[in-house]
Amino acid sequence: MAAADPDPAADSDRGPDPAADPAPDAVTAALADLYRRLRTLDEGEVAAYIPELARADRAGFGLALVSMDGHRYEAGEASEPFTLQSVSKPFVYALALAELGLDEVSRWVGAEPSGEAFNAISLEEGTGRPSNAMVNAGAIAATALLPGATPAERFERVLARLSAFAGRRLDVDEAVYASEAATGDRNRALAYLMRGAGSLACDPLAVTDLYFRQCAVRATAADLAVMAATLGNGGVNPVTGERVVDEPVAVQVLSVMATCGMYDASGEWLLRVGLPAKSGVSGGLIAVSPARFGVACWSPPLDATGNPVRGAAALRELSERFGLHLMRRPARGAPTLLAAGQDAVVAAQGALDFTAAERVLFALARRAAGPAGPLLLDLSRVTAIDPVAEAMLRSALGRLSAAGHRVTVTGAPGRPVRDG
Ligand code: GLU
Predict the structure, then answer these.
(1) Three-state secondary structure along the chain?
(2) Worst-scoring range by mean pLDDT, 9-23, 263-277, 390-404?
(3) Rg (Cα) of the chain, in Å, rounded?
(4) Where along the chain do the CATH 3.30.750.24 domains lie?
(5) 51-322 classified as CATH 3.40.710.10
(6) What mean pLDDT do residues 321-330 have?
(7) Any atom of ligand 1 within 6 Å of the Cβ of 215
(8) Is residue 17's pLDDT more than 80?
(9) Which of 205, 315, 326, 390 would you call most buried, defined as having the most Cβ atoms within 10 angstroms of its Cβ?
(10) Ligand 1 mutation pick, 82, 83, 85, max ligand atoms within 8 A of CB
């Protein structure tokens, strides 16, 4: 409202001022608000140890969020490309897990926070394993596990899978790749050290070259939000519908991101923000709210722990504002049990998971506490039963009939279905 407006009522008649809040929806409004307030936060330093990265625009700042339904929201420079750097690590770890499984991958790389710098030259005593796949040594060890007959074929596979996470074909920033290849002796040293300790599956020079290329893959914050959302959606890209990795792999990757994704600030991050995340030296940052959304920020200046200043501040606010901390109780859905009106009937509704199945089992056990007799389990309003709930129901029904109860089940969904 203009300061000179003599009649405030006349202004409110015209409705909200579109210039004050041009966002078409609440999520875009939240991102736009973060962008507006945090773009002036001019702290931190742009990484310079890879010379080409030092050229990044320190004012650049983009935010993007993708929901599990593939709805996309953006603010600021969300379409500005930058290199993934360490943000590639969770995705390449996912590819290694998808190829070899957790047990085999764990022989080569651990899952403990290192408490040391991302490029520290330190390996587990005895095994020579790097501590986790989010630090350079562990990422190089994970990259070494990827199959492929030639270096070109191996990289093409990596690029194709990263592209599947993003839902569009990504490419490589050749200048950043060349810059890191020219200066990456510390990473080569790490690879040689692992090779000497018996914990690197292939040639140190070949694997570091592949690693430098994977770090130089170029994407935007909008792409990264889709990649993050794919992890949060159990491995299915919510925009393209493609299954990129199996759900257990997505869960494993998110677990390591939660404990190791934010360099040496990972514990503090889990405490305050409470979301699995991964940052990189080019200013990229992804965070995942499992089964809700993936979010990504890009802003080159980094704090003393190596995390992007604006991105970290944006995620802290977003988590607080929308109550996203992983350890919070989820909102309680509709009640599982319907008042059936009869003692011998248990009627359930909605989607049955562990929590809902426990309620059904508890109610059945209560009904069955008396003398053995007929019982009715009415599932006609149940929309889905996940495998865990199905197994719980089966074993409860078996136990009840062994105890002499005659249980009739009506209206069970034909076969177990999963949400989404
Ligand atoms: N390519 C970078 C390096 O290995 C990635 C580091 C990072 O983003 O943390 O040094």
Answers:
(1) CCCCCCCHHHHHHCCCCCCCCCCCCHHHHHHHHHHHHHCCCCCCECCCCCHHHHHCCCCCCEEEEEECCCCEEEEECCCCCEECHHHHHHHHHHHHHHHHHHHHHHHHCCCCCCCCCCCCCCCCCCCCCCCCCCCHHHHHHHHCCCCCCCHHHHHHHHHHHHHHHHCCCCEECHHHHHHHHHHCHHHHHHHHHHHHHCCCCCCHHHHHHHHHHHHCEEECHHHHHHHHHHHHCCCECCCCCCECCCHHHHHHHHHHHHHHCCHHHHHHHHHHCCCCEEECCCCEEEEEECCCEEEEEECCCECCCCCEHHHHHHHHHHHHHHCCCCCCCCCCCCCCEECCCCCCEEEEEEEECHHHHHHHHHHHHHHCCCCCCEEEEEEEEEEEECHHHHHHHHHHHHHHHHCCCEEEEECCCCCCCCCC
(2) 9-23
(3) 26
(4) 337-410
(5) yes
(6) 91
(7) yes
(8) no
(9) 315
(10) 85
CA-to-CA distance for 262 and 306, rounded, in angstroms? 8
Higher pLDDT, 240 or 12: 240
Q: Does domain 337-410 have CATH number 3.30.420.10?
A: no
118 lines ligand 1 (CB under 6 A): yes
Neighbours of 405 (CB within 10 A): 19
279 lines ligand 1 (CB under 6 A): no
Lowest-confidence pick of 8-12, 33-37, 97-101, 274-278? 8-12
- Report pLDDT for 201: 83
Residue ranges of the chain that CATH labels 3.40.710.10: 51-322
pTM above 0.85, yes or no: yes
pLDDT in the model for residue 418: 42
At residue 129 the predicted structure's pLDDT band, cuts being 50, 70 and 90, is very high
